[in-house]
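Hello forum,

I keep getting stuck at the same step: I have a sequence, I want structure tokens, and every attempt I make locally crashes halfway through. Rather than fight my setup again tonight, could one of you with a working pipeline run this one for me? It's a single chain of 132 residues.
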Amino acid sequence: MKGISGNESRGLPLGAVIPCADNTGAKVISLIGVKDLHTVARRIPAAGVGDLFIASVRKGTPEMRAKVVYAVVVRQRRPYRRADGNIIEFEDNAAVLVTPEGEVRGSEIKGPVAREAAERWPRIAAIASTIV
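Reply #2:
Ran it on my machine without issues. Output:
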């Protein structure tokens, strides 16, 4: 994982229900915690593009359901500004399941992946079909 500047707006707060964009068997996950988030005391944790978070599988195959997993946000609906001045907004939110070390658990990713997530997580960039 590479370090990036933390100035993008975080669009997925604690409890957000996010569709899973890979083929691991999980369909819908719920955000229950954000890793390495250093923010103001008592602020509700939120995740943005490229953030690693802890999630609970809400819908999916019977062996995946109700498991606690790690995931990375690859798309978010909330607009955010890039360093070149462009404002990026996706049609939906999406996440990809990973191991705690950052290895992707699935073998393919459905839909586009934000460039911020691809730069920070090289394994996600390797299997992404489209990087926006």
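The chain has two helices and eleven strands. If your local run keeps crashing, start a new thread with the error log.
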